[in-house]
Design goal:
Blueprint (H helix, E strand, L loop, with lengths): L1 E4 L5 E9 L5 E8 L5 E5 L5 E7 L5 E3 L7 H6 L7 E2 L5 E2 L3 E4 L2 E4 L8 E2 L12 E7 L2 E10 L10 E9 L4 E10 L3 E2 L3 E2 L17 E4 L1 E5 L12 E2 L11 E2 L9 H4 L5 E6 L7 E7 L5 E7 L3 E5 L23 E5 L14 E2 L5 E11 L1
Antiparallel strand pairs: 1-2, 2-3, 3-4, 4-5, 5-6, 7-17, 8-11, 9-10, 12-13, 13-14, 14-15, 15-28, 16-27, 18-21, 18-23, 19-20, 19-22, 22-25, 23-24, 24-28, 25-26
Length: 361
């Protein structure tokens, strides 16, 4: 194990996490931020393994779901903590047409393509290098996705940086360049439970979304193309509302998919960094504020967690024990010309930033 200390109490430890079935070694990076925020990252899948932040009494707990062993992440199909690419969320039928040519992608979610396919970025080993700069600590991850990987055109060079700031935030910067036109939407699929206790569900978490509209979906979770107002619906989180307040009220747009698994249109999103969400766990006092440059934010209420995933410390992750907030381009954007653009072309640079800021109240 190699470790480095830094000013203001920041530091990094680098160690072996395990080996893949083919013998490839995978590293783990433990980051200690000057603010007290602590994080572990894996070179496999760019996974956020843990994220420890204090409650209102100053007691730190891990607020993300995951596993103790690399083997469990290799077997995982629920994207715990993983980087997602080339394209976050779903593409109808695993097909899209770009510049007059149709491309076929593997289908891994019913009849649709999900989160870059079964061999997406969440299953890749990333080159990883830790760093310390001006009191911050982080890890830079990069990889080259070859042309044709999971059916996508173009060779895509991708870099992702995780950074813990002096102010108690996790900043994620995404960058990509391509040699041929290709859809790109990168995100992070961490499951949060701000209570720090995965035996508790997240339905009592208070959520505020800076979104006046959302994209309704069909039974396959593919957007219909409509940008529907949230006013007067269970999708209205413009004022703090518990996640479970209306999740079971019988709205067919919820019951069809078992809860929240919908893309929200971020107010003032799709350019400059804008606040998209604020979540508070009343019991612990922990607060998570999310800022993004992306136009969309997927809210997922852990509808498919069923106890079959055995997490850290041998604890099963049951129904709605975690929630996800995934900044993204809109789902199925390659097939929806009225949605914000998602095609990256040669000579352009994909750049996106997400900030998760932690505090207490």
């Amino acid at each position: 194990m190699a470790s480095t200390g830094g000013q203001h109490g920041a530091g990094i430890e680098r160690s072996l996490f395990g080996h893949l079935p083919d013998g490839t070694a995978v590293e783990r990076f433990a980051l200690r931020g000057a603010s007290g925020l602590q994080m572990e990252v894996s070179g496999y899948g760019g996974v956020i393994l843990s994220l420890r932040t204090p409650d209102r009494e100053g007691r730190p707990s891990d607020v993300v779901l995951g596993f103790d062993r690399l083997d469990d992440y290799v077997a995982d199909r629920a994207y715990f903590g993983a980087l997602i690419g080339r394209f976050a969320n779903r593409i109808r039928g695993g097909r899209f047409t770009l510049d007059g040519r149709e491309y076929a992608l593997p289908v891994n979610d019913g009849a649709n393509h999900l989160h870059g396919g079964p061999g997406g970025f969440h299953k890749a080993v990333w080159r990883a290098e830790p760093f310390q700069e001006n009191g911050t600590v982080g890890v830079r991850l990069d990889r080259t996705s070859p042309a044709g990987e999971q059916g996508y055109p173009g060779t895509l060079r991708v870099a992702v940086t995780y950074r813990l700031t002096l102010e108690g935030a996790l900043v994620i910067d995404y960058a990509a360049e391509t040699d041929a036109p290709t859809p790109v939407s990168l995100t992070q699929h961490t499951y949060f439970n701000l209570s720090g206790d995965p035996a508790r569900d997240v339905l009592g978490h208070e959520l505020e979304l800076h979104a006046d509209r959302f994209t309704p979906v069909d039974g396959g979770l593919i957007p219909t193309g409509e940008l529907a107002p949230v006013a007067g619906t269970p999708f209205d989180f413009r004022h703090p509302t518990t996640l479970g307040a209306r999740i079971g009220d019988g709205d067919p747009r919820l019951s069809a998919v078992g809860g929240y698994d919908h893309n929200f249109v971020v107010r003032d999103g799709g350019g400059e960094l804008a606040q998209a969400a604020r979540v508070c766990d009343p019991g612990s006092g922990r607060v998570l504020e999310l800022f993004t440059t992306e136009p969309g934010l997927q809210l997922y209420s852990g509808n498919y967690l069923d106890g079959s995933a055995i997490g850290k410390g041998g604890r099963p992750y049951g129904y709605r024990r975690g929630f996800c907030l995934e900044p993204q381009k809109f789902p199925d954007s390659p097939n929806q010309p009225d949605f914000p653009p998602c095609i990256l072309r040669p000579g352009e640079r994909y750049a996106s930033r997400t900030v998760y800021r932690f505090s207490t109240q």
